[in-house]
Automatic annotation (TrEMBL), chain A:
Cofactor note: Binds 1 [2Fe-2S] cluster.
CDD domains to which the protein is assigned, alphabetical: TRX_Fd_NuoE
Known partners and oligomeric status: Composed of 13 different subunits. Subunits NuoCD, E, F, and G constitute the peripheral sector of the complex.
Keyword Iron: yes
UniProt GO MF annotations: 2 iron, 2 sulfur cluster binding; metal ion binding; NADH dehydrogenase activity
Catalytic activity: a quinone + NADH + 5 H(+)(in) = a quinol + NAD(+) + 4 H(+)(out)
Protein name, UniProt field: NADH-quinone oxidoreductase subunit E
Chain sites annotated for binding [2Fe-2S] cluster: 100, 105, 141, 145
Highest classification ranks of the organism: Bacteria, Pseudomonadati, Pseudomonadota, Gammaproteobacteria, Oceanospirillales
Automatic annotation (TrEMBL), chain B:
Pfam families found in the cross-reference section: Complex1_51K, NADH_4Fe-4S, SLBB
UniProt xrefs under InterPro entries: NADH-UbQ_OxRdtase_51kDa_CS (IPR001949), NADH-UbQ_OxRdtase_suF (IPR011537), Nuo51_FMN-bd (IPR011538), Nuo51_FMN-bd_sf (IPR037225), Nuop51_4Fe4S-bd (IPR019575), Nuop51_4Fe4S-bd_sf (IPR037207), Soluble_ligand-bd (IPR019554)
GO molecular function term, any single one: 4 iron, 4 sulfur cluster binding
Organism encoding this protein: Modicisalibacter ilicicola DSM 19980
Annotated protein name in UniProt: NADH-quinone oxidoreductase subunit F
Chemical reaction(s) catalysed: a quinone + NADH + 5 H(+)(in) = a quinol + NAD(+) + 4 H(+)(out)
SUPFAM superfamilies: Nqo1 FMN-binding domain-like, Nqo1 middle domain-like, Nqo1C-terminal domain-like
Required cofactor names: [4Fe-4S] cluster; FMN
Record PANTHER family: NADH-QUINONE OXIDOREDUCTASE SUBUNIT F (PTHR43578)
Role, per record: NDH-1 shuttles electrons from NADH, via FMN and iron-sulfur (Fe-S) centers, to quinones in the respiratory chain.
Domain NADH-ubiquinone oxidoreductase 51kDa subunit iron-sulphur binding stretches: 352-397
Length: 174, 456
């Protein structure tokens, strides 16, 4: 009984203690999004994306903050935040590389492209380089199948990316 | 931006010259520019844009629009091939019913599919015009374009086009003086293939986890926030303006006897061919013609097998190349037209490895609601991985066949699992020997040498 109580107290401190403060601009942007829909819950995904845009990821403290602004339950935000693959719940690198691992790219050299990237960066899918520069993730078909193997770095889509072009391309992202 | 970076940038491309594309024959792409640049409002209007809205709104009744669409029989280009007009005729409207929503499905994530991207990036006004007409027919008060989050270029084009259309009075109150009010918001996603399933898409639009919903009720009866909701694919909606402008008979005639269906289709080819890309052709064009336009297989290799319309369609063989690529014909051969973008597999490529890749996709993208899908797909994947390594055991193929049947239609809440079953079942049917080659052992006790859980 006591154990549970102290555990709860600790986690509450951990949440408050990460010191997350919702930026005023982001708060306004979230409220603006809310008006596009019949119910505030609908702005939840957009709210998470707004926070992520500023911080690079969605820290734990952002969950109750978003719930507060939208007037919805914390669990409703948390459940959504853990469902979507482009909402990051851990810090990511300055640049996120999304490599398409779907069928057309698989047929046009995904394995070689992945090997070139993992060798160049020394990390595997789901990891971030020690210098915090890149996070590497797989992604569903990028809709660039006519020019596979394809990948995205931040907002840019590239393809076809020959393995020997990887080093040069990554140099562009400091 | 350096030249190396610029030269690697992806640009979505139509492979037909302006000379080949005419308003009478290429309703989706005739306005496209040779340089692939965005068609803005001014150019769109100059090229007969929003003429259908002007003609229809206020002059025809919503029922007239639905009747024309039913007669034109524009079959859903999202993959299922359901008649848009028929769907619209089932939307609840009238009397005391609240006005509902029109949602454009622009979540394009089907492996091997890159067609909606082209329409969105280069001609967003055609979609907006189609949505206005669709909203008018279905009495929708508001529209959403559900766009996958990775389509950054398309988002830019759509935001610009929506602003232009609103400023010019094509969106908002009293559109073109007709008394009809309608506006559209862009909703961008945050990943997950399942968002493309229409009821999951509604869940996601409402800001929930993207779990599909049981049907009935169908979205047209009770969709977003319980209101009648119409969900249509980008390409489907892009067909509407020309149908309303030139009529159902003209549209039907576009396929020129190649198919019982009317209109054109944005077809495409990916894989190891010489000229991958997209073409707008009469629906019912054969895969042979497409392969020809794609310049044939690279390096003089032979074709082994092909998927007619994305990762959730069944494998077909070289002997099927002459079939009409339409919904009914392809459906008769144990496959589906799907999105109509061909994935080409060449002789030296392993079918077992490709199916392993596809099932890894479906396993990862399952929303986890139904047991066959959530548990059956990782199991399928593990068996395929062991066959690929040449470590399969007696009975594995029969087990895969059983799994394909258990994932099949009617056993799950949505068509994700049947979509996963189709390439699995058809690949075993056509290429059993390749699967057999992966079997090295007698059947063993279940936990001898187990494959570790997780890591899927
Ligand atoms: C798992 C799954 C994913 C889907 N993804 C898409 C998609 O990305 N785009 C799309 O238009 N339809 C997709 N669909 C089909 C939709 O459920 C729906 O049939 C379609 O949007 C209806 O529009 P249409 O009749 O105009 O084709 C998907 C279906 C399933 C089962
Ligand atoms: S079939 Fe799969 S994706 Fe569809 S509802 Fe069931 S678990 Fe979810
Ligand atoms: S399969 Fe990689 S972009 Fe489509």
């Amino acid at each position: 009984m006591n154990d549970t109580a102290s555990f709860n107290a600790q986690s509450a401190i951990a949440t408050d203690g990460d010191g997350f403060v919702l930026h005023e601009e982001d708060r306004d942007a979230i409220l603006h999004e809310r008006d596009h829909y019949e119910q505030p819950q609908a702005a939840c995904i957009e709210a998470l994306k707004i926070v992520q845009k500023r911080h690079g990821w969605v820290p734990d403290g952002a969950i109750p903050a978003i719930a507060g602004v939208l007037g919805i339950g914390v669990a409703n935000v948390e459940g959504v935040a853990t469902f979507y693959s482009l909402i990051f719940r851990q810090p990511v690198g300055r640049h996120v590389i999304l490599v398409c691992d779907s069928s057309s790219c698989f047929l046009t050299g995904f394995d070689e492209l992945r090997d070139a990237i993992t060798a160049e960066l020394g990390i595997d899918f789901g990891q971030t380089t020690a210098d915090g520069r890149f996070t590497l993730l797989p992604v569903c078909c990028l809709g660039a199948c006519d020019r596979g193997p394809a990948l995205m770095i931040d907002d840019d889509t590239y393809g076809p990316v020959p393995p020997d072009a990887v080093a040069e391309l990554l140099k562009e992202y400091a | 931006m350096s030249t190396s970076r610029r030269s690697l940038r992806y640009h979505c491309q139509l492979r037909q010259s302006a000379g080949e594309r005419r308003a009478e024959t290429h309703p989706l792409t005739w306005r496209f520019r040779e340089d692939g640049a965005l068609i803005g409002l001014e150019e769109y209007v100059e090229k007969d844009g929003y003429a259908a809205v002007r003609e229809v709104l206020g002059n025809q009744s919503p029922q007239d629009v639905i009747a024309t669409m039913k007669e034109a029989n524009v079959r859903g280009r999202g993959g299922a091939g359901f008649s848009a007009g028929l769907k619209w005729s089932l939307t609840l409207q009238g009397g005391d019913l609240p006005r509902g929503y029109l949602v454009c499905n622009a979540d394009e994530m089907e492996p091997g599919t890159f067609k909606d991207r082209l329409l969105l990036e280069q001609q967003p006004h055609l979609l907006i015009e189609g949505m206005i007409l669709g909203a008018y027919a279905n009495n929708s008060c508001f529209g959403y374009i559900f766009l996958r989050g990775e389509y950054i270029e398309a988002a830019r084009a759509l935001i610009q086009a929506l602003n232009e259309a609103r400023a010019a009075g094509w969106l908002g109150k009293n559109i073109a003086g007709s008394g009809f009010d309608f506006d559209i918001a862009l909703h961008t996603g945050a990943g997950r293939y399942i968002c493309g399933e229409e009821t999951a898409l509604i869940s996601s639009l409402e800001g929930l986890r993207a779990n599909p919903r049981t049907k009935p009720p169908f979205p047209g009866q009770s969709g977003a926030w319980g209101k009648p909701t119409v969900v249509n694919n980008v390409e489907t909606l892009c067909n509407v303006p020309a149908v309303m402008r030139h009529g159902a008979e003209w549209y039907q005639g576009l396929s020129g006897g190649l198919s019982d269906d009317g209109g054109t289709k944005l077809y495409g080819v990916s894989g190891r061919v010489n000229r991958t890309g997209l073409w707008e052709l009469p629906i019912g064009t054969s895969a042979a013609e497409l392969l020809d336009r794609a310049g044939g297989i690279r390096d003089g290799r032979a074709l082994k097998t092909w998927l007619p319309g994305g990762g959730s369609t069944g494998f077909l063989l070289p002997e099927h190349l002459e079939l009409a690529l339409d919904f009914d014909t392809i459906g008769e051969y144990g496959s589906r037209l799907g999105t109509g973008l061909l994935t080409v597999v060449t002789e030296e490529q392993s079918v077992v490895s490709l199916v392993r890749n596809l099932e890894a996709f479906f396993a990862r993208e399952s929303c986890g609601w139904c047991t066959p899908c959530r548990d059956g797909l990782p199991w399928t994947l593990k068996i395929l991985q062991s066959l690929e390594r040449g470590e399969g055991e007696q009975g594995d193929i029969e087990l895969l066949e059983q799994l394909a049947s258990d994932l099949g239609p009617g056993k799950t809440f949505c068509a994700h699992a049947p979509g996963a079953a189709m390439p699995l079942e058809s690949s075993i049917r056509h290429f059993r020997a390749e699967f057999e080659a992966g079997i090295a052992h007698e059947r063993r006790a279940a936990h001898e040498d187990p494959i570790p859980a997780g890591g899927v």
